[in-house]
Amino acid sequence: MMRWTHGISLCIALPAVAAWTGAQQISPLQPPPPPVAPAAPAPVFDPYHAQKDIEVGEFYMKKGRYDAAIDRFMEATRYQSNLAKPWELLGEAWEKKQVLQKAADCYKKYLGLFPDAPDAKKVKKRIASLEEQLAPPDKVKKN
């Protein structure tokens, strides 16, 4: 007889506890709440993995696998956001894929992080060339 009374008290207490704690009850007639999109991974400072991602990305670049290289260079920027090298390599990869706006943006980020780069003049010329290609035909300078 004792077990039966504990079962009844448990059935009475659970809805009260759920209401008291603010637990959300979903009836079988209501649709479940929409799933929450996963958040972007937070930046983590890890210079070792950043360097390894750059090395693997350069390997992919040599093999012509630009999407894989872009993924690796993006990971490198996540591991060490103030590192300039992956931004330059990202610019090259996007340029190879003919995504000129992203290439120009990556080159600009590279120069922003490393303005005194030994190849700064060359990169500035690349940016100018890309922006010229991106300009509408009626806005292109005629020599």
Give a written overview of the molecule.
Helix content is 64%, strand content 0%. It has helices at 2-21, 47-63, 66-79, 85-96, 100-113, 120-134. The mean pLDDT is 83. It is mainly α and 143 residues long. It has a domain at 47-136: Serine Threonine Protein Phosphatase 5, Tetratricopeptide repeat. The longest helix is centred in the N-terminal third of the chain and has 20 residues, at 2-21. It is built from 6 helices and no strands. Helix 3 (66-79) packs antiparallel against helix 4 (85-96).
CATH fold-level assignment of one domain? Serine Threonine Protein Phosphatase 5, Tetratricopeptide repeat
CATH class of one domain: Mainly Alpha
Question: What is the name of the CATH superfamily of one domain?
Answer: Tetratricopeptide repeat domain
- Helicity range: 55-70%
- Overall SS class: mainly alpha
Strand content: under 5%
**Secondary structure tally, helices:** 6
Instruction: Say how many strands there are.
Output: 0
On the 0-100 scale, what is the average pLDDT? 83
The low-pLDDT segments are none
N to C succession of SSEs? HHHHHH
The coarse silhouette is: globular
The appropriate CATH architecture of one domain is Alpha Horseshoe
| Biggest beta sheet attributes | none
Distance from first to last alpha carbon: 101 Å
Cα-atom Rg, whole angstroms?
28 Å
